[in-house]
Structure formats: C-alpha cells, structure tokens
Amino acid sequence: MNDSFKDECAVVGVYNCKKAAFLAYYSLFSMQHRGQEASGISSSENQKIITIKNRGLVTDVFNQDNLMQLKGSMAIGHNRYSTAGEDSIFDAQPIFARYGLGEISVVHNGNLINAQALRDMLIARGSIFQGFMDTEIFIHLIAQSNKAILQDRILDALQQVKGAYSLVFLSRSKMFAIRDPYGLRPLCLGKIYNDDGSCGYVVASESCAFDLINAVYIRDVLPGEMLIFKEGNPPESLMISERKIPHPCIFEYVYFARPDSKVFGRMVYSVRKEMGMQLTKEKPVEADMVIPVPDSGVAAALGYSQASQIPFELGIIRNHYVGRTFIEPTQSVREIKVKLKLNPIAEIIRDKRLIVIDDSIVRGTTSRQIVRLLRDAGAKEIHMRISSPPTISPCFYGVDTPNKDELISARMDLEQICTYIEADSLAYLSLEGLRNSLKCHPDELFCQACFDGNYIIS
Amino acid sequence: MNDSFKDECAVVGVYNCKKAAFLAYYSLFSMQHRGQEASGISSSENQKIITIKNRGLVTDVFNQDNLMQLKGSMAIGHNRYSTAGEDSIFDAQPIFARYGLGEISVVHNGNLINAQALRDMLIARGSIFQGFMDTEIFIHLIAQSNKAILQDRILDALQQVKGAYSLVFLSRSKMFAIRDPYGLRPLCLGKIYNDDGSCGYVVASESCAFDLINAVYIRDVLPGEMLIFKEGNPPESLMISERKIPHPCIFEYVYFARPDSKVFGRMVYSVRKEMGMQLTKEKPVEADMVIPVPDSGVAAALGYSQASQIPFELGIIRNHYVGRTFIEPTQSVREIKVKLKLNPIAEIIRDKRLIVIDDSIVRGTTSRQIVRLLRDAGAKEIHMRISSPPTISPCFYGVDTPNKDELISARMDLEQICTYIEADSLAYLSLEGLRNSLKCHPDELFCQACFDGNYIIS
Amino acid sequence: MNDSFKDECAVVGVYNCKKAAFLAYYSLFSMQHRGQEASGISSSENQKIITIKNRGLVTDVFNQDNLMQLKGSMAIGHNRYSTAGEDSIFDAQPIFARYGLGEISVVHNGNLINAQALRDMLIARGSIFQGFMDTEIFIHLIAQSNKAILQDRILDALQQVKGAYSLVFLSRSKMFAIRDPYGLRPLCLGKIYNDDGSCGYVVASESCAFDLINAVYIRDVLPGEMLIFKEGNPPESLMISERKIPHPCIFEYVYFARPDSKVFGRMVYSVRKEMGMQLTKEKPVEADMVIPVPDSGVAAALGYSQASQIPFELGIIRNHYVGRTFIEPTQSVREIKVKLKLNPIAEIIRDKRLIVIDDSIVRGTTSRQIVRLLRDAGAKEIHMRISSPPTISPCFYGVDTPNKDELISARMDLEQICTYIEADSLAYLSLEGLRNSLKCHPDELFCQACFDGNYIIS
Amino acid sequence: MNDSFKDECAVVGVYNCKKAAFLAYYSLFSMQHRGQEASGISSSENQKIITIKNRGLVTDVFNQDNLMQLKGSMAIGHNRYSTAGEDSIFDAQPIFARYGLGEISVVHNGNLINAQALRDMLIARGSIFQGFMDTEIFIHLIAQSNKAILQDRILDALQQVKGAYSLVFLSRSKMFAIRDPYGLRPLCLGKIYNDDGSCGYVVASESCAFDLINAVYIRDVLPGEMLIFKEGNPPESLMISERKIPHPCIFEYVYFARPDSKVFGRMVYSVRKEMGMQLTKEKPVEADMVIPVPDSGVAAALGYSQASQIPFELGIIRNHYVGRTFIEPTQSVREIKVKLKLNPIAEIIRDKRLIVIDDSIVRGTTSRQIVRLLRDAGAKEIHMRISSPPTISPCFYGVDTPNKDELISARMDLEQICTYIEADSLAYLSLEGLRNSLKCHPDELFCQACFDGNYIIS
Asked: Can you name the residues that pair with A355 across neighbouring β-strands?
C-alpha cells in the first residue's frame, strides 16, 4: 500500500469514433487509479473544441448531460493526481487555447526537466502562465513557433523540451499522440471497429482502457514517435528526433499500472508475479504464510508463494469504500488512516510467522503501522519483503514523490529501516532481480532513477 | 460477484463510550458492504435522543458537523440495503418515536414472517404506519404493551413477532441488544477499554466493526438472548423465550459477511477457504489455473487451489471505483455493468483451462456475462465451480432475494444452467460439503432454506 | 421588517387536474414567503400515494425528475416555516401513513391548543409519535376512529381537537379541505378549467397561488367547513360542527400574507394601505417624507403618504439576494444581519424628518438597528409609526412567536420602547383603527389575541 | 423589468484592510445585481496571490472555509453576468497569471472595441488565449511590455486598448484601479478607518458596496485616471492619457445601478425619480393610477406620480424567490417566466386606467406579456410610459445586448411597438428629457449610443 508515492496521470485520445467523448469517459474511468484529483475531456466538432473539466473522480465530474455536450468523433481526456500544495481547478487538464492556427487542446502525462528554464524564457518573451502545469509550456512553444502547420509546430516545440511526456493534442480536425524519445511514460495504441465498418483509434496510458471499450491493443506508441490522426485514416507515424535509447519507467511495473494492463509490451500482473518469484530466490525466509499488503502487493505475493511453496493467504482485508472526507478520529490520524483501509484477520495470522509482501517503502510510516496492526493481531514473526529495490531518489519525470530527505531508504540502512518499521526481518528485491523479472534483453534499458539515482535526462 | 442477492443490513450499538456516535460511525463504515442505500445514527444524552439519517453511503450521510450534534455516550446505527421499489428516506433507520415511556429509537436487521398479520392487527387497533419497514412494528407493539418498564414491554413485543431479527433499542438511559430465538441474523458483543479505566460495550452485526474501533470481541449475542446495558454496568443477559434450536443463516458464510469478520463463532475467511477445499474434493476438474470472481470468490478459490494444487491466479481484476451513477453506455446495459467492474487478464488466461470460483449463481445473467468475458479473452475451457449449493428458494428472513421464478436453479437443472451460462462444466458444492466446511457438530443446525427450501419459521 | 415573528405555513391541494403535482409545485412556489424551511408534495395515483419532501426552498426540494415521479391528478403540498429547536426533516409535511382504511397524507397550517393532552391520551393508548408536529395527531385520531369511512373518521377526529387548523387530506381517491370552526387560519378555493372541458379545483392558503396556475378564485373555505372532493365532481360542502363565531387571524393582514393575495375576502394590499391611512388620522406627525421598512411596510406607508400628503420615498433599499449561509462578519452579527438586507439612501434622507412605517415591533432589536442606520445616514428626525397595535401576547394558533417576556410591548410602555429603539417619536395604530381599516361590520370578529390577549380558544 | 439587457459586471478592490477578502466578499454581495453567473476573489499575501472563483452567486461560491484561505490585506473581486453561449468557468474572473514581473490578477468591467485586432496581433506574436474574455488581453499586453515596472507596463497596455474598462489589478504588493479615458463604466473610491487608526481603501463599481462595509464614499475614480495603492499610503493619482471628454454610460442611471448607489456623482434613486417627473411633463396622460414594473420601474413611477398627482400604486407584486432552475411549465415558457416573477393585483387595477412605468423596452416580448397580465386582471386602459428613449442600438462597451435586429425600436416605429405590446398608448422619455433628469451642465456628455447610435469610440 503505497501511500506516499502518489499516482501520476492518465491520458487518452479517441479518434474517428461515434460519441468519442463517451469512449474517453469510459477509458478514464478504467484508469481512475492513475489520478483521483481532477478529470477532464475535450472533444472537437464542427471546427470547435469544447472542454469540460473539474475536480473529483471521473464519475463526479461527468454525467449524461455534460457528456452529451461533448460532441464529435474526436476526444482527449485526462485524470490528474493530487499534488500537495496547489490543488486547484486551474491545473485540471485538458488545457485548451486559441492560438495562431486556431484552437488546440492537450493532455499530458510526465514532467519536463527544463520547465523552469522554458518558463523563464517564455515569460521573458512576454508569455503568461495561468496555471502551474508544464502542459501550458507546450502550448506556448507551439503558439510561438513560426511553422505554418500544427504538426511542424509541435515538432518545433518538442525540440525544445527535455523530460518525460506522453502527450495527446487535439486540434479542430486532427489528433496527435507523442511519447518522449526515452519513452519514459507509457502510451499505447488500440483500434476500434465501428458499426459502419470504418475503424477508430484510441491511445491510452494503459491497455486496460481498451478492454472496457472493446478496443483491440495494437502496440505501444514508440519512444520518440508521433502518431498523426487525420482524415479518418490510420495513424501516420513520424519519429520526432534522432533515435535515443529508450528508458521506460520501471516503476510502472512495480506500482502504478493496473495488473490487467499491458505496459511497455508486458502484462503487469505477470511481471509482478515474477518479481515475487525472484524475491523468493533472493530473499527466502522460513515462514508459515505469505500475505500481501492489498492491493498493490497481491501479484508479487502470489509469485512469492508459488516459488516458495509457502501458502498464500489474504491475511489483510482492504475496505474499498474509503472516501476522501475524513471525520475526526478518536485516535491518531496516522493510525486511523491505515486502519480505515486495512484490517488483518487475527485468527489467520495469530502465532504465525508471516512473510508480508509490499511493493515499496517510501517514508516507512505506513509500513510501521501495518507491522503494528499485524503484531497486535498476534503475528509471531513478521518478515517484510519488498518487491522492488530501496527507493533512494525522487522522480523528476512525472511522479509526485517526496523529497529525497523524506525517503527512508535515503536516510537509513536496511537494518535501521527494519528497526524503524518494527519488523523481524526486512529484505528488498535487488535491481538485478527486478530486471530479471522483466525477462528483458541485457541491452534493454529502463529508467530506474528512483532506485539507483541515475537520471537519464538532466 | 453476487449482484442479485442484494446485501442485507448492518446494525451497531455503542454503550458507555465517550463520543459514542463517532464509534458508531466508524463501525458502520466498516460494515458498509452490508448496505449502501441509507445510513443513520441515534444518540442519547440528557434524556433526549437525537437521530440523523439519510440516503447514501456512511461517508455521504455523516460529516464532522452532524456527528458533533450526536452527543452522548450511547448510540445505535444502521446501514440499509437497497430495496427494489421503495427507496425512500422514510425507511432509513434508526426509527425513532415518542411513546408512553418516553423516547425510543431502534435499528433492525432481519425480517418478520408475521409482519402483515401484525400490521393488520395494529392497524385494526388504530395504529398508523409511516414507512414500509418491519421495524415500525416493534415500536408499536412496545408502545401498546401495558407493562410498566421498557424491558418488559420489549419482551412483550417479542412474544408476538415471528421471524428473524437482530435488534438494538436505545432509550434515554438504556440500550438493549437482542437476537431472535433461532439466531438467524448475526450480532456479536465487544468491549472497549476507555481511557478513564471504565469499560464500554459494542454490539455489531460483524466483528470487523470491532477491529476498527479497538474493541475486543467477547462473544456472540446468543440466539434468544437480550443484553441489557444500563447504569454503566456490563450487560445483563436475559433469555427472551424458551430455548429454541438455533438456526443461524448459513449464507452469511457464503456471501454476506466480510472475510475478516467472525460470524457465529467462525472466521468467515477460514470457512470460505474450507468451502473451496471441499469443492475440490467433491467436484475436481483438471485445469491450468483456479481464478476467483472477485471479491466474493477469492477465499474459496484459494482453498480450491490449495486443495487441488492447481495454481491460483487473479485472472479477473475488479475496478473498485464503480459508483452509482451510470452514464449511457455505448453497448448494452447488462454487458457494461459487468465490464465496468470486472476485467479478465487475457494474457494469463489465453488458451488456458480455467476453474472459475464464484460464491453463488442467482439469476445466471451475471455468470453468463463473466463466462463470455473469459471466452473473449481466450480461455480454452471454463469450469465454473460454485462454493455453495444451488440457490432454489428465496429468503424470508431479511435478505432481499428475487422471487423463486427468477432463481435460475429453481427453473433449470444443472445441465441447463451450464448451457445457459455457456460454461464447459458447472458444479456446485453440496449442502453436506458446505456443512463440512463449517466443521460443525452434527447436531448444529443452520438456516439453509435458500438451498433446501426448509423454512424453520413459517 | 418583521424578523421575530417567523412565517407560518402554506398548504395547497389540487384536485382533478392533469399533472397535479406540478400545479402544487407552482402554488407552493408562489407561497414561499409563508415558510422557507421545508417543502413537500404527496400525489395519489392508482390507489397509491407517493410523497417527496425535504428541507429547503421549493426550488431546492423539487426538480423535473422528482416531480415526474409524483403522478396523478390529485396532490397536496406544504411549505414549513423554520422552528427554533427542531429543524428536522422528520417534521416536513405532508405526513403520510398507512392505517385502517388504506393510505392517507395530510398537510396542516395551524396549531392545536389541546395537542399535549391529545398526545398524552394517544400515547396512553399506545400510539407512537415519530415527529414533533401536531399534524401526526390528526392521523392518529383518524386511525383510531371506529367509523367506517374516512369522511366520518375525519369528522370524529375534528370533534376532539381544539385550536387552529387549515387542513388538506389526501386519500387514494378523495381529497378533503377543512378550516377550523373559528376560521383562524386562511384557506381559499379556486377552480381550474382543464383543456378537456372538465373542471379541476385548488385549495390554498392564499389566493396568489391561483394567479400563477391560472385558477379562478371562487371563495374562502368557510370556518367550520369541510370540502369533499370526490369522483371528479365539484366539492361537496359539510359543516363539521355547530356554528361558531368566526375569528380569523387579523395578523394575516398585518404581516403574513402576500399583498397580492385575497385573504378572508379582502385584498391584503388594500387593507394595508387603509391601515396606513388610519395611522395618519390617529398618529399624524409633521415630517418631510414617509418611508417604509421594505417589504412589509410598503403598502401601509403608501396609505400614510396618500392620507397625509407627505411624500412617499423608498428611502431604504432591500437586497433580495440574502441567502441562508452566513459568512463570519467583520462586525457584530446583529448589525450585519440587518445591513445585509437594508440600506438607507443617505442623500434622500439626510437632514430630513422621516416617518418610518413598519408593520410591527416584536423584540425591538431590529427596529433599533434600523433607526441607527437611518440616523447614521443623516436623518434629522425619525418618527416610527407602526401599522398595527403593540404586540403584547404570543400566538398559540400556528404562528411561531417569541415568549411573552421577549415581546418588548409586554415589558415596556410606549415611552420606554421609543427610548429603546432610539426614535424621536413612536406611535402604533389602535386596535380600533386596525378594525376600521378592514371596513368590517361591527359584528365581524377577528382573532386579535396578539394585540389584546383574548384567546378565543383555550 | 429589463430581461433582455443582461446585467454587466461588478468589480471591487480592497487595499490595506484586515481580512480584505471578507470585505471584497461583502462588497460583491451588495453588487450581486450586476452579475449572477460567476464570482471570484484574488487576495495577495506574502508575495503570493491566491484566487478562488466559480460559477454561481457570491453566496454559492464562497463560504467561511474558502474565504479563510484568501489571506492578506489586499483583495480584488468580480461578479460576472451570464453571457449567451459560453457560460464556462474558464471565463470567471479574476484572471490570474505569472508573467515577467511575477504574479498579477485582474478584474474588468467593460469591453474593448479593438479586442479582435489585439487578439489577432497577440496571437500572431505567439500568445495563447485560454478563455473568451477581453481581460486576458490586458495581461498579455502587460506581459509583453518591455517596461521595467508594472505601473509602466499597465500604462503601456492601456495605450493600445480602445474601449470601455474599469479595471483593478492586483500584484503581490500593489493595487491599481483604472477607468478608461471616456469613463464609460463606473468606479468609485471609498475609505475605511481601520481599528488601529490606519486607513484602508476600497474601489467598487457602485457606492452601495461601501455602505455595507462601513466605507466612506470619497469620489469617483476619474475618467482616464489610474489610482496606485502601495506601501500602505493613500492612493497616488496618475492620468493615463491626454484628457478626453468623459462619456459615462447613461444607462447606468436607467437600469443597471442599484437605486441606493451613487454613480458618476449622482444618487441613482433621485435621478430615476426625476426621469419619472420629466416623463410626466413630456408624456402626460389621464389615468387613475401610476404603477411601476417592479423593481426597475419603481423610482421613476414615484416621480411620475408626484409630478402628475396621479396616485402611485404597487399594482404588480414581484416574487423574489425566483431561482435559476426551471421546472417544466404547464403553460408556455415565455408566459410562465414573467408570471413566476410578476403578479398583478386584480382588485386594485380592475376597471382602472393605468400608467405603467418601465425603464426600457428591448425586444418587446416581456412588455407584451405584462400588458396581457394587466389586461387579464381587468385594467381598462394601459398607458405604457418608458423612462428612457427607445433603445435602437446595441452596446459595445460592456453590456450584453441583443443584436440590433432584435431591438424592437430598431425595427418598428412607436405606433407599431404600441400595437405589438398591445398597450393603449406608449410613450418614451426623450433623450433631452433624460439629460434634464440628470440636471447636468449643457457641456456634460454621456455615452448614449444605445439611444442615438453615436459611438464615441470605434
């Protein structure tokens, strides 16, 4: 249960489908786990783009009435994660603007490394920024490009940005989907067979979006690729820059993505199970049962159990009704927050030696609370096994992580952390083990900066 | 995923605890799965009972402000399930009334067999009914009793009712918790150690409520027992009638209760796992993996897997963000309703022989939809295994079931159902196997009318 | 501006009209001034009564969707005023019940003198009361009557109650409208010409309701009369008791009713103007202008001005956007409450001698605040003239008045009040003058207990 | 009742006052009549500007909680009117931006004549527009100015714009209030004496805002004047351009402003009464009574009555509870819209010859409906008298008027209009009469383009 790494974002684009906004809505619904703070959709019809966005879950923001206003066969959408300080409606996406070539709307998952420099440059030129999102930067760069057509302007803009981005642009007649040259954030392409025999296309952060709307997964948008959707045709592909060595975010496998999604060509569920198996090999421990911290630790725990032959048990039950309002507790806030979600089954774990599988430890406070809950429920031994390496560095590529000095692994060694979280033993999957779980070619690279501090872009 | 048997209700009573209403609130929150239609709490202070109730989830109905209005050290609460026709605020509980001895409020889980006769009798005597709930009947009977004290009046009333009831009454100075003589519906007793050294008490439908508020499970309220909470003392126990042979509802184990609850003295999770193991023994089948229909089939699937040594996989992922508003689908309503919740992982199940574990089949439409989803995802064989016997009769004891002619098992034989749901094979746990899972003494009886049509009260 | 006498209630009944609930809705909207706390409508169709009610203004409670659920050609409705302590949804009306003869719903404007005795009697017999309104008493009495038909039961019930009531009962096939024998509260009858040539009927507290729905005012329901609407016919009339001398509430003319309503056979606007004229005769004073406290003093001020030939000016402007939420003021609460509503026009009143007309003084605090506002705005002299006699006694017949010891006229003499409110002079219309304004026959009587302390029923 | 000319906007700025946002809130509340569509406030503290804005009334948008977030001693606020097509939250004000010199927020009442040209120019330079309001233009011009300090950049920007504007800018340490050189839209200056002996300042569209917050009216901001609030000092004054002949909007007197406001140095109430008196002189008619169309015609009707000695009567009563939701009517939409607001008192006007005073006629449909209501109520003669000249031209300076071809006076002559609205006679105040009502010096000019089609800026 990774409470400290907040989720990131979800993007979707729908092209050449009847009621495109409804498909965008369902897609966003299926990717709700990537962002619960705000949601929005733009659709384009009759040379006019309409945008509806607001704070709240997808089902809070949209209803039959306002979805009906989003007419047309092209739509883009976005779910935003909750940022710490500035939870304002102004930063909800899509971001829409009128500019030199007409109208444009854009959704963005990622983060720019040179955002401040670009903002400074743009502001020095007289641009104004109405929100805090990097996304505004793209529109300014496009607006200030001197190229004649939008496609060239987007390319122009992308030459100037450094960082992670999966983008979908909507103009009044076209749609563009782009992944940054390192392919840091996911974006995949699906196809829809329309009733009239024509084909529609969908791009989405995760393939689980396709399943709900009966789209067929085709492939990932490639790192550095721009897909151009126009004139009802299948997308044209264009490489936006000289080829770079892709470094997709390895943490998508660890935590972000839904287990039923295919990300960077692999099913997340299978990868997570494999991580659990690797963890068994690397960090075995004698115990009576393997229990996951639900829901994020479930697949890895299954793998650990299968590899170790130690029985898998759902020793902690998760209450999924947790909402966002929080009534004054009768106990400490930190304690109740975890207890509202998680309840150990005392009779299962009493006097048992437990292997507890979680995906990661960020600040350590949640893990300590879980260990205490299990201890109170009578666990004899608690062996915490983490299905990823220690998180030692913040992410600068689109994930809302705490500062480095809040990361427990950046401040303490393994033994200290184990003491802090009050476990009997603690072990992490090695970075090599994580890579093994992916069964990747030795040359295949990932961004693993959160684990090793090596930032591919800086 | 049992969509047709609606959940029933949850009741809670808190006695001699500071901020009793907050404890009732947290208890109701942890029992939200038993009823999502309406929620309410009454508290008693200074010879005055205050009640707040409304439609919606616990977290919708209550907030810091209105909980603060519910002062005092005694409180009762209720979650109500959604009934088909009459979803009105008038039927939310607690039901409060002023009567001959002052003020009373009551919460009720269950259903009376002789409700209509009692209503007719009461109406003939001049009583009026403002809602549709049986709960009003109890208050009328109490109000019309000629006994001098409330306790005797409650006993009087209980002599007249026939059926299932777990009740908590709140007067201005006392609290009464009662289970019907057959003990059809659950109710358990917990204890809270107050900061000042005194003890408080909690009664709740399920023990998971105790865990969240740091109460200790003591025991079940006994069938036919009345617990009297007064003067700050531990509860006095009184049997309300000559002893009957208890027949607690066996379906609580199959579906209703949270797996981390202790119900009728057994941990639900363990019972469900055992049901899966029994099912393996009774209805084995060669296959590549065991997958549950989440969340209700998970524990039984684990048991089936452990007993059969066929690997357990989470082959279907559940989206927990499903809300109550429902946007016009682009496909048939029935289909989208299931797809919004459940998504199979194609890469796991493709070309595989699946054992799919669900807790029950009611109308058959949901099961058919699940089989189709799995088939579309590439499953080679689908062997549906149900961890309870065929549901052939409706419940008259507090569960909102369809009419008999809507129950697929009442209309079709096994083979026909298998054909209808389009599975390769279908098998149910036998009633004997279900009883075996409970590891009960041969003399221990349960209400299993939904499976065998034998109604203990009529 | 009478802030201390709260408004009372509005009732409406619609019979034999298509979409009766919509007509009830519009009627309630036009009588919103009589109660802003809660609103509700019951309609009857196919032997079934449906009720929707909630806290809030008419336009808050109802929308297209829920009005559509209130089917049928008969409907009754109610607006409730805000009572001090118990603002709960449970006391919203209509009050619905199932009883010996089927279903009934009722709305009530008024108050019973023997409510406590009846409650005690009913409770002693075993009745329960779920709310605080007298209205429940009527239903209990009807339910306990041994008469065979509803009409007789209502008559039975009415024999037992003492007090003020304008009632509308809705059964599954009939509607009954009744005024108490003294006719204390208003109720008038109107007719609607349906598109199909048939006639519908409406009863409402004020005739302004008729104007909005194109109903024609026919006459008042008579004191002691019951109108029976059945079988689509024009109403039958029945006297419910031996004839009493009517005593309708004189304060309806002073404050409650809308000026465009006909109440007890007289247009309210005309009566109020006449009150102003009488006031001129009785309590003339030399001044530069007459200004009303808006809106309640406007008509009387016009009369005062016309009779005195002193110019009428709207020297105080009222802000009608005042809502119910109240943001922490930067000044004292009492002061801002008046200022949010009323703003004097300094340039009009500066250095002027003002005659300020208000309808009544209850506690005196509001009047003092108004005098201060005018003084701050530069008024040279402020002569307060009240278009009714001093309010010395509380109302027990359906109006929410403060206790006697809070009524400034019950505690102070004229001079003391004048000093307290800081006016230069103060004068009230005499009771005789008030009667003269009504141009009534010497034998015509009114309930004027609030002015003379003579209670016709006790 | 002018339903077709929508209201315009309200702006407010508060400087050097404790809890400035609360004062802005109260000011906006008192100017709610100038815009009901959206409301917003920015406040500045600690070098940071925070903005909260949303759709809805002032009391809908703000509550204790969010006002508390708007800290600091400087705040600006805005009420927006409802525009036809694009009612989006994106166009709510204040508009905030980060730009070359830091942060800025702005509120604007008015309209630019060269908006499209400026947009085109800015877009050609690469600017992007996220909303539809002219207000964004100001920020772009400021951002692109090469001046070193904000004050000079504002001056720079103002050189480029042509049109009507009353503006308040908020930076992180200063506030600027500006009226365009022609002074088309109002803006006045008030002073607040703080508890600590210091002085605060307020600028607002109307002086009624000052009354509620105990500010003292000082003077109008002059046409072409910029007031600079900084370092806690009284405002510095600077003329933004060579002196022009002021042309303030004469329609503020006719309709927009609250009668208790001082606008352009005159009390609106007095001016309107004078307009009624002029109208008597110009367009006398024999009749039994003068009645206003409430509320906008009241003051003029009083004047007409006083000058003509024909009695003033409130023959039409207005229901102030009219909300924004609109339930399916049982009659035509147009008819019910007027009836929901206005109800004639039949007994007053029956068989009477009426002079009906309204402030203006725009499309004529509302007037026709009013005439019909009065005719149905029995009026013998209806003489419509309009307290302004025929509205023949749309406004381009900040008022949302229909197109010219929707203005009845642009399409029909007097007689035709009279026939259309079904009155017995119709007469308008002459432009000269309107000017006379203002008692202005012959050289004093006003923008009266809506009456004479002469646009001072084009």
From this structure: A290, A383
Taking contacts as CB-CB distances below 8 angstroms, the residues of chain A near B33 are 321
Closest CA to D305 of D285, D276, D281: D276
Q: What is the Cα–Cα distance from C355 to A171, expressed in whole angstroms?
A: 67
Confidence of residue B87 (pLDDT cuts 50, 70, 90): very low
Query: What does the angle CA C263 – CA C265 – CA C270 come to, to the nearest 5 degrees?
Result: 70
Q: What is the pLDDT of residues B189-216, one digit of tens each?
A: 999 999 899 999 999 999 999 999 999 9
User: Which among C54, C124, C140 has the least Cβ separation from residue B128?
Assistant: C140
D136-140 long-range contacts, Cβ below 8 Å, gap at least 24? D136/D95, D137/D112, D137/D161, D138/D106, D138/D108, D138/D165, D138/D167, D139/A128, D139/D95, D139/D97, D139/D99, D139/D104, D139/D106, D140/A126, D140/A128
Which of helix, strand or coil describes residue D15?
strand
Interface touch A64/B327, C-beta < 8 Å: yes
**According to the model, what pLDDT value does residue B85 have?**
41
Contact B201, B265 (CB under 8 A): no
Q: Please give the C-alpha separations between residue A306 and each of A273, A300, A311, A385, in angstroms, as whole numbers.
A: 9, 10, 8, 15
Instruction: Show the tokens assigned to C161.
Output: 């109650």
User: Rounded to whole angstroms, how far apart are CA atoms A40 and A131?
Assistant: 15
Residue A94: asked if its preceding bond is cis (omega within 30°), the reply is yes
**Which residues from C are below 8 Å from B134, CB to CB?**
none
Judge whether B9 counts as a catalytic residue.
yes
pLDDT in tens, C348-393: 999 999 999 999 999 999 999 999 999 999 999 999 999 999 999 9
In this predicted structure, what is the pLDDT of residue D239? 95
Which among D168, D99, D100, D108 has a CA at the least distance from the CA of D132?
D108
Contacts of C449 (CB under 8 A, 6+ apart): C393, C395, C396, C397, C455, C456
Q: Which of C54, C98, C123 is facing B128, going by the closest CB pair?
A: C98
Nearest to B99 among C54, C128, C145 (CB): C128
Which residues are CB-neighbours of D308 under 8 A, at least 6 positions away? D280, D284, D290, D355
**ipTM for the predicted complex:** 0.92
Q: How confident is the model at residue B329 (pLDDT cuts 50, 70, 90)?
A: low
For the segment B240-257, what is each residue's pLDDT rounded down to a tens digit? 988 899 999 999 999 999
Neighbours of chain C (3+ CB pairs under 8 A): B, D
C-alpha span between D376 and D374 (Å, rounded): 5
Q: Which of A337-346, C61-70, C72-81 has the highest mean pLDDT?
A: C72-81
C-alpha distance from residue B185 to each of B61, B211, B250, B454 (Å): 25, 20, 10, 17
- pLDDT of C90 > 90? The answer is no
Residue with tokens 């703003």: C343
Residues B170, B105 contacting (CB under 8 angstroms):
yes
* pLDDT tens string A10-53: 999 999 999 999 999 999 999 999 988 899 999 999 889 999 99
Report the alpha-carbon distance of residue A365 to residue C268 in Å, rounded.
71
pLDDT digits (tens, 9 = 90+) for C236-259: 999 998 889 999 999 999 999 999
How many other C-beta atoms lie within 10 A of the C-beta of residue A219? Answer: 10
pLDDT above 90 as % of chain C: 81
Q: Measured in Å, how far apart are chain C's first and last C-alpha atoms?
A: 30
Task: With beta carbons under 8 A apart, name residues in chain A contacting D98.
Answer: 119, 123, 128-130
Q: Strand, coil or helix: what is C145?
A: coil
Q: Cβ contacts of residue D350 below 8 Å, gap of 6+?
A: D377, D378, D379
Two tokens at A379?
């666990």
Are chains D and A in contact at 3+ CB pairs closer than 8 Å?
Answer: yes
**pTM to 2 decimal places:** 0.90
- Return the ∠ at Cα A402 (arms to A396 and A405), rounded to 5°: 105
**pLDDT at residue D178, as a whole number:** 98
